[in-house]
Batch of 2 targets.
Target 1
Amino acid sequence: MNIKRRQTIKAGSSLALVAAAISAGVLPTSAFADWNKAAFEAKNMADVLKALGGASAEKSADIVITAPDIAENGAVVPVAVASKIAGTQSISILVEKNPSSLAAEFDILPGTEPNVGTRVKMGQSSNVHAVVKAGGKYYVATKEIKVTLGGCGG
Amino acid sequence: MKIKFLPFAAVAFVLFTGGCATMQPGPTAVDTSREVESLARRFPPGAKAPTDAEIVALLKASFKDSPSAKLDRLDQTPLQMACTEASRSGKPLDEKLRDGLQAAALASVKYPADGKYLGDWKRGKAIAQNGRGLQYTDKVGDVAGGNCYACHQIDKKEIAHGNIGPSLTGYGKLRGQTEPIVKYTWARIWNSHSFNACANMPRFGDAGILTEAQIKDVMALLLDPESPVNQ
Amino acid sequence: MKKIFVAAILASLAFPLTAQDVQKQIDRYRELLADGNPAELLEMRGEDLWKQKRGPKNASMEACDLGLGAGKVAGVNAVLPRYFADVDRVMDLESRIVHCEVTLQGFTMAELTKRPHSLNQSERQTDHEALTAYVVGQSRGAKVNLPQSHPKERESFLRGEKMFFFKGGPYDFACATCHGVDGQRIRLQDLPNFQKADNAQRAFTTWPAYRVSQGAMRTMQWRLLDCFRQQRLPEMEFLSPASIDLITYMGVKGKDGTMDAPAIKR
Amino acid sequence: MADPMRIRAQQKGDVTEVRVLMAHIMETGQRKDSAGNIVPAHHIQTVTATWNGKPVLSANFGPAVSQNPVMNFTFKGGAKGEKVIVTWTDNKGDTRTDEAVIS
């Protein structure tokens, strides 16, 4: 454990909280998936799917992406995804034209609603894919989001 | 000299009569409620109206001098002074004053010595997108952009355009490339006050914002038949 | 039916997006953004700082008089700038916060004004930004009503008004160039016209704001500094007299607006 | 030093809606500083949430999640007064845990 980390926990006065949580079995690390380096470094959807353990994704109308058609700024683009596919296990958000496609991946645990949202960076106008894993298979929905330049210009 | 320029001014008039409202958006007059405010309300006992000299002194005390943006930027030119008063009062410039300012502006225009007005529209496209330059955060001598899209629609494909100036989509296609058009466009970019004393558009040539070569590139963006503006 | 469908597709190709379409979609983006504002994180940090004993005098800011009495924070941003008898001049919120840090906590003016704004993206927000975020957040819902009965308050407004129309610099710009006409946009960003009450209210009540383009909350002092940068004037001094007068002008113009800051913006 | 999160958990019928704001730079590892050097990546990698000791969310973030991340999710169950605990961990090993009471 590095010093910085220790300070962080101490400063947040959450040491007791974390300890209590672990001893109570609240944070069984095994319940949470590890960060998948290969998936987050993949350059396109096919490679992301491969890294996640899939092959191809089938288009699905049961995945709903809520996002603007035009983003006033690419640094913050709100994207929410809802899946109506039975047995949804995970939801991933991919930005096709980013240097690495995968932005975020959410594991849908028993009890989690298959409806999540976050905000992503987009370097330029691009397709945004929502990839859903359900019953071991992959499904995808796509939406184009235009990123605009803004403000006084400099 | 003056006679030589007259035709361009005439062209400008013909070109923009239909669009005068959008061409010359002076700030709206001060609201009437303030005009009728009683003197007592406007000046509570002891309150004084500031003089122009006080305002300049106060502004100078409020800004920092730096090599890339000196305090002399707060010394107003006669045109800046006249247009400040016109927009504050909501009253147009006196005609004689206006004509004099416009003539002086037109006389400031330097046309290209080699007689070539059009550069490379592709470079012009980048200049139109670039909004940097002449800020206190820039270095002296940094290349500036024209930032045309801040105010104008130009290439139809660029949706992030402002509306302070008129749309320039199809500029060359609509107007052609005759000498008066070309020279008028050059003068408008070099010193837009030539045709409208209190125009909002910066003096890209006269104020040294863009170089002659850059203005040629912007000209090509507007007038070159190959430019996306004219597709 | 098929014909209409084909025609619709052709039409959509020929006319990609109308100005109204674009505006609608930008509004949608703003609506989605408003759903979560990271400025709240800074407000939390600012509240801790406000209540913490700090500085050479080891005092908290809780005794600070921001214009509605010592210790009162709620609603102050809706009545500032205003005249303060203890310094015999008009102060804006940020000047007053710095004033209290000097008088109550013993910090020096020089250290507080050296670098009040954090750098873009790369830097943790400053204590000044955090304190401002907290105080401003405590005015949400308050009606803007700057006092104008003291001669110095009125003079501040009149000076601010003149400055608003002052054209200068290599671009010949005044504040009024962009903010004195209805319906103007720079790129896709609409520009409030301060001669219209509803516009002025919307502008005054939504600053400070978290700027997503910068990943940081920016204060009203920063807003003016950066407007002048874009205007190509020199660098505005933090807490300068001109800044206070212009904020007074904007606040008086925004009378009766409802404070909703820190907001979130592009 | 990591700043606290802002967590809102609201019971709506038989589900609880959770909205989380995290203070984090989310540096991409692609940006250059003023000297032209690449600023190393520094971003949250995992976010987990529990309710009554039960995991209700697990997310993995890459550097393309926006600075000061916002995350919304919903889980079945939850009653007013119960706690939701959220933890994030970043690629430098920094971590932060905060909790919110369901309202």
Target 2
Amino acid sequence: MDLVVILIVVAVIIAVEVPLMWRKKLIEELWVFSFLLLLGTFFGVINAFHIPVSNPLGWMIFIYKPVADMVNAWLA
Amino acid sequence: MGFLNRTITKIFKNPTLGHPNPTRELPKEPLKENLQDNIEHIKKTLGNSTDLVVRDFFIGSKHKIKAAIFYTDGLADSKAIQDFILESLVLEIPDLSLVPENDNYSLLKNHMLTVGDIKDATEFHSLLTSLLSGDVILLLDGYAKGFTIGMRGWKDRGVSESATETVIRGPKEAFTESLRTNTALIRRKIKDPNLWLETQQIGRITQTDVSIMYIKGIVDDGIVQEVHTRLDRIDIDGILESGYIEELIEDETYTPFPTIHHTERPDVIAAALMEGKVAILVDGTPIVMTVPTTFVSFMQTAEDYYQRADVGTLVRMLRYFCIFISLLAPSLYVAITTFHQEMLPTTLLISLAAQREGVPLPAFIEALLMELAFEILREASVRMPQTIAQSVSIVGTLVIGTAAVDAGIVSAAMLIVVAVTAISSFVLPAFDLALTVRMLRFPMMFLAASFGLFGIIIGVIAIVLHMCSLRSFGVPYMSPFAPFNLADQKDTFFRMPRWAMFTRPKLINQKNMVRVKSTPPEKPGDLTEE
Amino acid sequence: MKRRALLLCVVILIQLFVTGCWSRRELNDLAIAVGIGIDKIGDQYQVSAQVVLPSQIAGSKGGSPQSPVNLYKATGNTVYEALRKITTLSPRKIYISHLRILVLGEDLAKEGISSVLDFMSRDTDTRNDYFIVVAKDTKAEDTLKILTSLEKIPAVRLFSSLETSEKQWAPTSTVTLGTLITELVSKGKNPVLTGVVINGNVDVGQTQKNVETVDSPTELKYSGLAVFKEDKLIGWLNPEESKVYNYLTNKVKSTVFYIQCPEGKKVSLDVFEAHSKIKGSMHNDNPEISIEQHIESDIGEVQCRNLDLTNPKTITELEQIANHKVVHLFETTIKKVQQEFKSDIFGFGEVIHRSNPQAWKKLKDNWDQTFVNLPVSVKTDIKIRQLGKVTNSFLEEMK
Amino acid sequence: MLEKGKLSTRQLTILVMLLTIGDSILVIPPSTTHYARQNAWISTLIGMVIGLLAIYMYSRFIKLYPKLTLIEAIQKAFGKWLGTVLSLMTLMFFLIVTVGSMREVSDFVIAEMLPGTPIPPILTLFILIVIMATRLGIEVLGRTGEIFTPMIIILFLILTVAIVPQMDIVRILPILEDGIKPVLRGSISITAYTFLEPVVFLMVLPYVSQQQKITKGLLLGCLLGGTIIFLTLTVSILVLGPDLTTRDIYPSYNIARRISIGGFFERVEALIALQWMLTLFIKVTLFFYAFILGLSQLLKLKEYRVLTLPTGLILVSLAPIIAPNFTYYNTVFDNYWVYYVITFGLVLPLVLLGVAMFRRALSKDLKSQN
């Protein structure tokens, strides 16, 4: 069901944007557009099938852990 | 909105588009020497239309000159034709002067025709046009030119009282269908040489006179230029009402909001002209449009300026309040009673719940039905003749109102909400803005029904975004609110005292700002001192 | 800018899909609970909800006289569970946003109230505008059964009478969830709750008869404050002492108390303004509390024959007597609380915390012991302003 | 130039103010009070000072990189490769902030307004107006801000005055009982979320009509916004006390719930919700706009509007999965996210300034040499 909704949305987006770009010959735009759209669909599918994403902001934690610990230690 | 444009043109494509247009262009062929030929030709072109009157006669008794007059029955003033053309030409001609040698044409023109407005016509096209717009044509035998004599005089509704924009204090007169009368009405108010008037014909078939009026030196010439270009761009077979023009020259078609203000009151037009706007008059309609238009101008009525300032301000705030009510009242009711009951005071909640006991429909459907019913009633009572309209409204109130509640189909509270909505939508002075609100009310109800207050908030934001994006002839629609302009606030939410409104709106025109020079009235000091 | 229309269509479509889903509830699908009572039965919670029948309260069409409210009850392992179980009895979901009063059974209060309060603070429907009371020597359930006149909905009646009595007579105290929780977590102050008792027979009280007679056989009535230690009920203050509590927490708007004039008869004073200053100080690292109580009052009633109210001396005299009486009352009450309950309901700890934060760090851990023998000095300053309509009482002339 | 609209100084000020209020008014009170307890208001003041300095730095920035947006400036400063990498990271920052804010929107709406409604529809509705605004351009957004600002301020004042009866001064006492450190710790989050997020305006400043007035506009806006945040936080401590302020998820919303004047002016939390939706909308739109514009500048596109819809799709589907539950989001938000913001809000602009000044000095030297 969710998948269907996603596909509908994607179809609508394409129907709205692509013809104009095509007519205006905005080729680069078209590439970026389709890339973003794919990305969006990908995340959408992850949502739809409830694929478990283990700790999505891990990278942020990884990068900033030292700083955080330092500050907490200093201001504890 | 290129997308919509394309689809629409696709769907409603005119089959004969691109073919030479169906109307028969009249050839610009010159008049002939021979009178009889001319008569024949004219009759032929007009297809012997029965309202064309052709009267041929002889001028003078000794040297007879063959002549003929043409006029369209009903458009020309036949009495005047009697007195000033036939009599003076047939009877009172000093015989001796008419001799074949000398130029009788100019003789007639200069000495004998006792009418003011005379033009020469040398070719059929212009001749026919003026004939059909009510002039009288006089042709002489042996001359390849003729007179067009201005004797227009047709039946025409006199200046009557304004029907849609009534005031308690202020002039009662309203525009009529004839362009001349309207321009006269405006000139009567502004006797200034700088009040300029330009006229052009629009409409291939109807040849309607469209004139624009503005005060030179106040108006922004750029806007006048813009109006000209947009009017010239129009190519249409006929203009029957100002609405045609409005749709063809407005900035944005796909918007529920009116971007051109129109009125039937000369004083309103005069005020607009003095603010530096341009008035567009169309022959055959009692409605005059003004551009550029901002949102606030739909919230102002003539009376605001005739009453005292404080009253005007108060009434105006009431209007701004009412626009919110009529836009949001039903959606708020739906949202609060179906999503946010905790926002009602306990006692109110209990009584509302008591009313809804046994009402079968969900609140949203209930609201939708009632609004629909109300819109139907209003439409019916507008289209009906007055007498029936009253009975319609009675039926409406009785059936829809009392009966529905008694039958337990709708709750009384909902009825109250709908009623309040209706009343406050009538408060809005500009009818087309009221229409806008009526339209937008339904999507708002949808949003409210599915997302509660969140939906309403989103809807409001969307509407405001849209309004801020609108422009009317280059002027931002929401000015002077956004872009904000302190000096212009004096005539938006508030109506400042006359002596305080001393400049014209900034965004409409930049030059010649000064408006009022008089200072606030001083209180007379205590006269009985000593 | 372009194609806004199409986007709009999409929105509308979504609308059509989702309309009438999720969190929407029609007014006539709600069971509006105005009062909730919680009792502890074994290790189960019994939740009883007093639900309004709107048609009986506001309905225009008068059908058969039915009771204005219904009482549903269910038991469960947790409060939430019990509340949801009620749907097995009631046709509609219990809706507690308009809760007016939350009654806690005495036995529950004795075992500790904190366990039930979390639900009330967590649930998104609840607001913070209802009062919490304790059912004194009865079950919370019973207090919600009693029908009342003059205010058709019993819970609303409890709510408003608590409000008025706090304003006018001051032995009761309106406690909302927010304050209760703050006091529970704070080390320097323990909570109190007003107690509600049933005068008369419950079985009579819940029948229509109760509201048909002039003098209702069964009445709901507030009496005194319940003293808590941490979250456990440990004793009751009588109305006089409760009044002291309200004085000290600056809750007294207006009240009446009497004093004895020299000849032994009574004069009643109408207090119209009162506020107390509580100061904390460290006296060689022992905390001390000093209380200054200001009271402004009028003379409301005089029973004494020879009392010359036209003479300023008399007034000062009366003020002296009043001072003594009030000081004594304060001291005894505070003593009682210190000795008997050992629970700092007056928030003396908070006072110390504010005045000497550093010292408080050391004190807070065994504050309760410190509180028991905390030196408290009371100073009162009572002013008598007006005499009412007359000066001297006519009693003076009577022989 | 991609963006044709022009922003007046007043509009700039208003946008800065609304952005500063943004979501802080919702989520800041608990996280600051958590550390600073009853002294959170001091943390706010500290934060405001730092913020004003940062804002001033931004206005220097536009002097050194005239007519350049942040992305273009990065390109200019670091050349092709490094520039591109940094730009992409910055764009990602914009995107992440947008996602975070949208997550907050859905969390709030579901918690307080529409319990039980699934997230996607709410976010879809929200992103639709964001997209609409982005397509209409920065100028229209500025005007919309102008329309709504008076309403927001008036509502805020009314509500603040209405809650006064329930304030109690003792709740902010004692002042600084545990020294300054907790206060500083508390001020970190408020500095980052409230006063460093205006970095997004580095994408907008080139489109301001009167360049010389930018500094004033920025500072004023930041000051106004900061004041409102300060008031909100102080009020929530005065009314709820530090304990409840920390424990509640949306303290200021609960405050609105407590308002009751004369028994008729009560249950007005809807008004609060209205304000927040507006400020959140402005914030999300600005960051969304910055992302779209930056991306199309980075890739030298001719038309940026076409990117809005797919990006919207990304946001809507990313917001639910960015954090499995509220707790996770909150932990990250409190401990790590702050430094992420600081990196791009403070460090990056400083580095850019440094580079620019260095270049300038270098060129001077060269001139002086020959």
